[in-house]
Amino acid sequence: MTRRRQIYEGKAKILYEGPEPGTIIQYFKDDATAFNAQKKGTISGKGVLNNRISEHLFTLLATIGIPTHFIRRLNMREQLVRQVEIVPIEVVVRNVVAGSLAKRFGLEEGTALPRTILEYYYKDDALGDPLITDEHIAAFGWASQEEMHDIADMAIRVNDFMAGLFAGVGIRLVDFKLEFGRLFDGDFSRIILADEISPDGCRLWDMKTNEKLDKDRFRRDLGGEVEAYQEVARRLGLVPEGDDSAVLDLEEHRKTRGK
Ligand code: 5GP
Predict the structure, then answer these.
(1) Distance from the alpha carbon of residue 84 to the mean position of ligand 1, in angstroms
(2) pTM given for the model
(3) What is the pLDDT of residues 231-241, one digit of tens each?
(4) Is the CB of 129 under 6 A from ligand 1?
């Protein structure tokens, strides 16, 4: 077997060259970071769950006409995606006050917002992903006005769809982060949804108990991270009833047994 070429290693994923030109393999790690990587840890089994949850959400989003980079899941931890040029902007969609919004304006977490808020952050770890406006995006040329129009439009459609999907399984979609990329076709490019959508980049609260079912369990030392991610997968119908083994990571299992 030939060794695959690693393109990039991020905080939660590794990207490898794909089998065909224009494709990439996304490998989902168990590593977890928070507060701009000042807090580090591992959530055993997280990568497997995020791979499956993200596959599910991207597949559903494609059915409502959102173009995405997702091609297919390859195995427990890997998925094949289209190679894109990532737009250096994190798009945060908020339905309910939480996290940095609560902090910035001294608002109480859990208050429903009168309208959905879209925020943009510049993707730069060294700067701690600063909050930016359309003015910065235009002035520094991070994306064109047409691209930002497509991005905002898609972000709102993704939010409408996902808020309904999660509400149907008793989960409140508080906020989440999206990333977009440019897919090139000759001299032209179009914007498609990229990266992942998983409890790592969403706030998901149980509607009845307000229990957090996302990475805030890790950020705030609440414990039970894997159980929370598993619960999200279960409610989305991704774990067969009474079969927890479906989320077992066989690849890791074999490695630890040295086979
Ligand atoms: P906040 O700005 O309140 O910290 O985050 C808003 C939402 O975006 C949360 O759901 C959070 O998980 C997500 N988010 C913001 N920045 C990042 C990031 O750098 N990585 C990940 N995985 N999620 C992020």
Answers:
(1) 21
(2) 0.93
(3) 999 999 998 66
(4) yes
What radius of gyration do the chain's Cα atoms show?
A: 18
Distances (CA, A) of 51 to 28, 119, 133: 6, 25, 31
Q: Rounded to whole angstroms, how far apart are CA atoms 13 and 243?
A: 27
Cα angle for residues 149, 196, 136 (degrees, 5° grid): 35
Please state the rounded mean pLDDT for residues 189-209: 98
Write out pLDDT tens, residues 179-196: 999 999 999 999 999 999
What is the number of residues in the chain? Answer: 259
Specify the residue for token string 């999206």. 178
For residue 183, give the H/E element and its range: strand 171-185
Amino acid at 232: V
| Gap between the Cα atoms of 175 and 90, Å rounded | 13
Q: Give dist(CA 111, CA 97) in Å, integer.
A: 5
Residue 100 Cβ < 6 Å to ligand 1:
yes
Six-digit token string for 161: 């769809």
3-state helix, strand, coil in the chain (%, to 5): 30, 30, 35
Q: How far is the CA of 201 from the centre of ligand 1 (A)?
A: 5
